[in-house]
Amino acid sequence: MTALPALAATGIGSVPFTDPDQAVGRILRHLPEVPFWPQMVRLGYAEEMLPQGAQGLPALEVDLEERRVRLDPRADREMALAHFYETAFSGDLGPFALPPEGSRGFAALVKAVPTAPAISALKGQVVGPVTFAGMVKDAADKPILYDRELTQAVSQGLARAAAWQAQTFRNLGKEAVIFLDEPILTGYGSAFLPISREEVTTLLTDTLDTIRQFGPALLGLHCCGNTDWAMLLELPLDILSFDSYGYFDTLLLYDKALLAFLERGGRLAWGLVPTGEELQQETADSLFRRFEGQVRQLAVLGPAAAQILSQALLTPACGLGYLSPEQAARALALLQELSELARRWRAAA
Q: Is the pTM of this model over 0.90?
């Protein structure tokens, strides 16, 4: 596998656009080296991360009208799990492929790859197992996260969904980058998410290890708020994606884990382009100044600025799906400009 270009830009997932081909065209224009497939959330619930992740998982019901994924009360649990594991261990990733009706952005990106020569890698995303199991509930309205048997199946199924995306990218002759999206970890340590550190670590490690069993891929994890960063930095990750616009200072509090992560070659995906109201007040220059200041703060802890920059990717702080189409287009353009400014700084250093 080739190395990702330093300071390349990519995206997180959701977009507010409604034409998949136009959305991919915009992404390829602004993020030509590591484009991501867009989740077209304005086209309906099927395009959101939970129903996308439910493909192939046992005993679940996807209700597009009610906009929810839940444990199917009519399912024969024992038979559903037996069938799931028979399928999972067959080695066939097809049953875990993205559903065509819920992944129009994926199809559009795959179609566009042959005419986009600048691509170094393709970036995909899958809902993480903690978030999926924490948001899907049973008939008693209890998250299946607390059902160890189902949660293990979720881990194995989502790993295969991620592996299917990576395999598709490799078959196109491109390096695969796959992020697990774990927004629920912003509630880690609170009454909202009463799960132990060991349980989170085991679940995520099992998922990452399983993905790698199916072939090479650079694996990342995205968390869009504050969390126990040491817990994530100690995982077998290649990339940690975080909202550096809003939470850089909290990441610095975990300096030992952060330095160890960088020392072993881990990359940081700096979420520098805000996806909230702050977007309106920022320019490429103001975002670059923020990035420059953050890199210098991190360099004080030990790693040289050159090393930090060589192991950096640039992203929005989170998905763009809740912005207007005009705001999202501006965010992508700012991200491209920011990447160019950061590379000039690196070249001059």
A: yes
